[in-house]
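Ticket #4471: structure export looks truncated?
Reporter: QA, pipeline team
Priority: medium

Steps to reproduce: submit the single chain below to the structure queue and open the exported record.
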Amino acid sequence: MNKKLYVGGLSYSVTDADLQKLFASQGTVVSAKVITDKMTDRSRGFGFVEMGTQEEAEKAIQALNGTQHEGRTLTVNISKPREDRGSSGGGGGYRDRY
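Actual output as written to the record:
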């Protein structure tokens, strides 16, 4: 099973370091990343944490899912694999007209 966790409901002020610190009490944190908007570099309110073992990931879910952090309710669960969105290809260029 996956050791990577989805963390939703984060305050927009939470940093990667804050996220790492929050989950460190549940075990070894391999990585912690708050997802930011590409244009504004502002937090999108969610992130991902990879724990050292499956047991630590399950412990973190049980301990932190539904809890309050900086006035917001956290959603913590196993991360689903990223979907392949495919290539947008741009389309509409001259090569498509001939």
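Status: closed, not a bug. The export was complete when the record was re-opened. Leaving a note from the reviewer for reference: Helices lie at 16-24, 54-64.
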